[in-house]
Amino acid sequence: MDITLSVIKADIGGYVGHSSSHPAVLEKAQEHLERAQREGLLIDFHVTRCGDDLELIMTHQHGEDNEKIHKLAWDTFMSCTEVARSLKLHGAGQDILSTAFSGNVKGMGPGVAEMQFVEREAETIIIFMADKTSAGAWNLPLYKMFADPFNTIGLVIAENMHSGFSFEVHDVLEHRKVTFHAPEEIYDLLVFIGAPGRYAVKGVYHRPTNEIAAVSSTQRLSLMAGRYVGKDDPVCIVRSQGQFPAVGEVLEPFTMPQLVEGWMRGSHHGPLMPVAVRDSNPSRFEGPPRVIAAGFQLASGKLVGPRDMFDDPGFDEARHQANEVAEYMRRHGPFEPHRLPLHDMEYTTMPQVMKKLEGRLTEL
Ligand code: 13P
Ligand code: MG
Ligand code: MG
Asked: What is the C-alpha to C-alpha distance for residues 195 and 178, in angstroms, rounded to an integer?
């Protein structure tokens, strides 16, 4: 059975500040998607949130980039924004860069990850959603899942994974893409994806079948808006088991709270902390950045789940380590590398400060 899984997200207003989401917003989204399911557009859906980001998880049979599905997400975000406005939530409509829908939400603010596949006998899916970080944050975990035998023992001992995986990498500045084959091209791959601000893993494919294994949202809000509005807070869909990494191999990379950009005003590096959905309320200095994981089994497109995959004491040590790293990073105050390098600040306050100082900057 051919299924499309679409995960479309947007921050349409935070409660309180940027720390979390208001239940009334989630209810409104639920209403919209319920109606779409009744009308037969969706097979199934799940509405959730990571921090202040509203996440629409939808299954259907209309393929990727389908106008009706994107319009549904768009209309949902618009009426949730109205709810956010009525409650005067913080940054109501934050990620909605334009009000005129033109067939696809890409380029309009929301983040999108979609994949179409033939549902397997048992179709295990993990959907990762993050807050206070940017597209590209999935580079390191995706590399570990699909190319690092120290993370994924299946690459070594499972016959159906032994040929490796291909990584489709997008240059988000120049709008180019290139595909690398792991394991033989991992050094070339790492030159690119080790710079996640510019190169983001868009998709991962099984070799030699070319079956889709993972897909991520690569939309960069600041590049679309030309200024800082909020962070990308990206999503990533990963297929698991069988010819793909086991659930434990998919989750394992998050035991290392990698440093990502996006904390406080989108201008700081901080550790990515894996948490249960109920704990995705980044409050300390508006962070540290969070990642949640919703696990599902698909049954003819029905989303059986979610299981809250980081709701496991097995991740306590990662959370503890994230708090230690957060404390250490915070002690740098307004200094790099806690604060982002100048290049990235160009999308935050630097242009305004420079403008103010125009006339006062003189030649050495
Ligand atoms: P969000 O991108 O999650 O809205 O965070 C914005 C911010 O500035 C937090 O300090
Ligand atoms: Mg926000
Ligand atoms: Mg957010």
From this structure: 15
pLDDT at 350 over 80: no
Distance CA 249, CA 154 (A): 8
With 90 as the cut, is the pLDDT of residue 349 above it? no
11 catalytic residue (yes or no) = yes
Peptide bond into 196 cis (omega under 30): no
CA–CA dist 132, 340 (Å, integer): 13
Q: How far apart are CA 319 and CA 325, in angstroms?
A: 10
Encode pLDDT of 10-37 as tens digits: 999 999 999 999 999 999 999 999 999 9
Tokens of 82: 């109205």
Which residue's CA is the closest to the ligand 1 atom numbered 8? 265
Average pLDDT over residues 59-88: 98
Q: Which residues line ligand 1 (CB under 6 A)?
A: 11, 18, 51-52, 94, 131-132, 230-231, 233, 264-266, 286
* Residues paired with 90 in a beta bridge: 14
Whether residue 255 contacts residue 262, with contact meaning beta carbons closer than 8 Å, is answered with no
Rg (alpha carbons) of the chain, rounded to whole number = 20
Tell me, what's the pLDDT at 131?
A: 98
Q: What is the signed CA dihedral for 109, 110, 115, 116, rounded to 10 degrees?
A: -90
Nearest by Cα to 347 from 261, 263, 266: 266
Q: How far apart are CA 267 and CA 335, in angstroms?
A: 11
Pick the ligand that lies closest to the CA of residue 129.
3
Average pLDDT over residues 181-197: 98
Candidates 228, 232, 233, 344; catalytic one: 228
The two structure tokens encoding residue 122? 């048992």
